[in-house]
What we know:
There is one protein chain. By secondary structure, the protein is of the alpha+beta class. It folds into five domains: about 1-95, GIY-YIG endonuclease (3-Layer(aba) Sandwich); about 110-250, no CATH class; about 255-375, Nucleotidyltransferase, domain 5 (2-Layer Sandwich), CATH 3.30.420; about 400-555, 2-Layer Sandwich (Nucleotidyltransferase, domain 5); about 560-615, Orthogonal Bundle (DNA polymerase, domain 1). The chain is about 45% helix and about 20% strand. Strands 14, 15, 16, 17, 18, 19, 20 and 21 form an eight-stranded mixed sheet that branches. Strands 1, 2, 3, 4 and 5 form a five-stranded antiparallel sheet that branches. Strands 11-10-9-12-13 form a five-stranded mixed sheet. A hairpin with a 2-residue loop joins β9 (about 255-265) and β10. α8 packs antiparallel against α9 (about 210-225) and α15 (about 445-460) packs parallel to α16 (about 475-490).
Amino acid sequence: MSENTPLEHSIFDHKSFLSSVSEQAGVYRMYDQENTIIYVGKAKNLKKRLASYFRKDVGSNKTKALVSRIHVIDVTVTHTEGEALILENNYIKKYQPKYNILLRDDKSYPYLLITDHKHPKLGLHRGGRKVKGEYFGPYPTVGAVWESLRLMQKLFPLRQCEDSYYRARSRPCLQFQLGRCSAPCVDQISQEEYGEQVKLAKLFLRGKNSDVIKELVHKMEVSSSQLEFEKAAKHRDQIATLRKVQQQQYVSGIASELDVVGLHRIRNLACIHILFIRDQKILGSKSYFPTVPLDTEDGEIIEAFISQHYLGDDLKAARIPKEIVIPHAIESVKELKKLLSDQAENEVKISHNVRSERTQYLKLAQTNATNALLTKNSEKESIQARFAALNEVFELTGGINRLECFDISHTMGQQTVASNVVFDQNGPLKSDYRRYNVHGITPGDDYAAMAFALNKRYLNASLEKMPDIIFIDGGKGQLAEAEQFFAELKLEKTPLLVGVAKGESRKPGLETLILAGSHQLISLPATSPALHLVQHIRDESHRFAIAGHRAKRQKVSKKSALESIEGIGAKKRQALLKYLGGMQEVLAADIETLTKVPGISKVLAQNIYDALHDN
Length: 615
């Protein structure tokens, strides 16, 4: 792979540029006058592909707009078109060019994991496959995994607790009493019987429901013939539950590992909906809303989605199915098939002209894509209507494009957290949300906490991300603190400050807005779209602050008593807990026992003993 340096011209001289471009496969990047990458593309023949941009009739308006902004083009030559496809995908993710199709949701999917232990644990897993065991999925959402785990508890009483909790048990926990766990931790079930339950659970997760039922019927008959009626009754109940589940979940057909992609567009808005089919069941689905430039072909969108969704790291390789059904033909289908097959280490098919069962799945994916996009579009229009209604209230000259809201959360002045949430005309802009851990103030002083948050957010803020209105969740005192802060900051243009005070009964719809400066009170009707927008951003700010505060409070509550002892770092703390078997044993240990722990001297043992027992 070799790379050419960008050719810079005040006005782009395409003839001179094209005369020196290679005819090999590769990737090209187009820059505008500000040296920002505006488009990334790949080509089998770089010279032919780039020359097509500078013909008299370039086709779509999108291409015309792109060409008019080109200031520099640089190219990277690759050995194969497949290599170019991967490089293009990496560049698109890195630079997110304006004229490319961008898929922004890139989270790893959750899996069900049965670990490789003496008594295997069944649980949720997300991330790299570092834990030994068998993985099942992927599932579209964490909620789908929890639903499956709840179902598995009814069918197969495998442990779902953490290893540390499992090792520390001396008697059965509540899950055993509820019939959701067989308590292998205290030998309430034999190793052989637990292993049988694990085997059946794996068969069930692979979609072999019929095999599981046959096995359970055999076990029930054996138990009954041996007059073990209680055991036979348990198998009978398992069979009944499985048959019920089979009726609800089973989808007859031949599709064992299939992803079905649906697409719906409204101008430059697009939704890609993907159905996950594993072991003849619809495991779930998920919608994506990529950024699509105008005049982009449907095939381009599908190709960009498959490249960005499946190609890349090991986590993506784990979710590549054996077949992907798409609604439109794509140009680089052969290259994509090869790359996907290489990454998945098995043959991967990409089908678009499908029949029978796959056609039904494709229709379902298309219907879901249509519904999801219409819903999202409706929500977007609703948000924009609310922005317009809010501007009718405040009459800002340049309109309202960005709103921010602050809230403070704490418990008795402890673990104070301030939230800053942001809305634009598309709704919540979560990438710009911020939380601030407030410190250096008198506990419980909400005014000082507000000043702390404002200082963090706006002291060195760029003017580009300055909001039109800042809402302060609180009364006149909180608003006055914000006014004083901005008076001292002396910006060229200060955002409009508005306090949001709750009504006497604190019921929604009775909020009063307090305008900065005059402290004029503005009461809006409960049905006002403007008030609904204020309530939405205020509630979101409140939720975000409370979530941060609870996480901080929980972290403090879990903090080991050993952490406050001088001379005890992470390694010695770990040695104490591992050697003695847990915090209860550390508390019960005398000085002599503590000195037996590697790295603990007699003086340190005395300090540990005194600190723990003084507390």
